Amino acid sequence: MPLSFQPSPNIARLKESATLAVAAKARALKAQGVPVIDLGAGEPDFDTPAFIRQAAARAIEAGATRYTNTEGILPLREAIAADANRIQVQQQPVTPAEVVVSNGSKQSLYNAVVCCFGPGDDVLIPIPSWTSYFEMVELARAAAVPVLGDPANSLKVTAAMLEAAATPRTKGVMLNSPNNPTGAVYSRDELAAILELARDRGWWVVADEIYRRIAYEGDAVSALDIAPTRDNLIIVNGVAKAYAMTGWRIGWTIAPAPLSKAMSAFQGHTTSNAAAVSQHAALAALAEREQADAAVHEMVRAFRQRRDAVLRALGAFPGVRYVHPAGAFYLYLHVDGFRGAADPGAAFAAAVLEEQQVAIVPGSAFGTPNWIRASYATTEAVAVEGVTRIATCLTT
Ligand SMILES: Cc1ncc(COP(=O)(O)O)c(C=O)c1O
After folding, report:
1. Do the domain assignments include residue 92?
2. Which tens digit of pLDDT belongs to each residue from 30-65?
3. Residue 38 is part of a domain; what is its CATH number?
4. Of 187, 212, 245, 263, which is least surrounded by CB within 10 A?
């Protein structure tokens, strides 16, 4: 009898990535010639800066074509540690032994989740949150506990809200600031209170700071800078968003050395090292500071300009509610009650694609079905046109 596939218990509850699914649908429509305005994508529309591409080309010629250490080449881990020590000055300097380089911050998050959480553990996930946190926690066979943020405070959670949701099984919390999908940024005080609670309760803090450099109203504070201890802290970051390097697949963790060792061992049995040439590209992004800072500055300036333009466009639709976007490149809009649908975000996503040819991501992907996410990582004209069509669909 032919073997028919039955999902193993490991993936029994696994769902397709909603953000990737939207991108695929928009691509398929475009391929059919439909002029879709794609505000679904979660990636910068810029090319990787030339000095990084050139460093990668040189690295290939110089022989960066083989396996590297699982945890990443030492010069890159040194550069990551040095970069971290630019922002944290209160504690012992970060060392390369605390750094594990992986194939994107997504893998770094998964390394952390698998190594820290398991059956019987609860993991607090402030929602709305990036879609993959839930799946990663479930893949680790731990329980994801959503904690809804305060709509009056940019859908952010407070330490008190986390405390109220905690149980004796709580083992950790996933933080993300600037936030995907809302663009909200936690203030120093908000983050410090959460870090103190986690320290007192002995929870792991997984701080996903992939958008940290994309902030419009002052620097987004890093957990590394204010954590009362690093003993329970895992910083996750990467080059994808700030340096327009999504396709290169480089991320990393900064975590206590014993945990880093475990994550490296786990990665050693799953994917081994990140691509050698990509590691050299990331090294250029981190080590060539002057050029890198200029490139990041320029991209953030463009994102800010687009953000301001879409907010101006939304000004013509006073009934439309959204989270104030202070970082990242997303706009989170409230679509509660849309046409009386049970899942208003999904209904809105289908309607706006069909009626206005705009692709967005329904909020159910982020644990909040009454909302939708639009990305403005596209040209200003396209972003403004797309957001105007969204607001039109919402208000007519
Ligand atoms: C919050 C968040 N974390 C992590 C990632 C993954 O990024 P990377 O490309 O480094 O794997 C994304 C990508 O969309 C993200 O939005």
Report:
1. yes
2. 899 999 999 998 899 999 999 999 999 999 999 999
3. 3.90.1150.10
4. 187
How far is it, in rounded angstroms, from Cα 303 to Cα 305?
A: 5
**pLDDT tens readout for residues 6-26:** 889 888 888 877 666 667 777
Atom nearest to 43 CA in ligand 1? 14
Distance 8 CA to ligand 1 centre (A): 26
Q: What confidence tier does 394 reach under pLDDT thresholds 50, 70, 90?
A: very high
Averaged pLDDT, 273-292: 97
- Centre of ligand 1 to C-alpha 207, Å, is 12
Q: How far is CA 47 from the centre of its chain?
A: 19
Distance from the alpha carbon of residue 315 to the mean position of ligand 1, in angstroms = 30
Q: Is the pTM of this model over 0.90?
A: yes
Please report the atom of ligand 1 found closest to the CA of residue 105.
10
Residues 189 and 176 in one domain: yes
Is residue 58 a part of any domain in this protein?
no
Q: What is the CATH number of the domain that holds 169?
A: 3.40.640.10
Do 74 and 158 share a domain, yes or no? yes
Q: What letter does residue 322 receive in the DSSP assignment?
A: B
Residue span of the structural domain in which 311 resides = 9-47+292-395
For ligand 1, the distance from its centroid to the CA atom of residue 52, given in whole angstroms, is 20
Count of Cβ atoms closer than 10 Å to residue 263 Cβ: 25
Distance CA 182, CA 58 (A): 39
Amino acid at 219: D
Please name the residue whose Cα sits nearest to atom 14 of ligand 1: 42
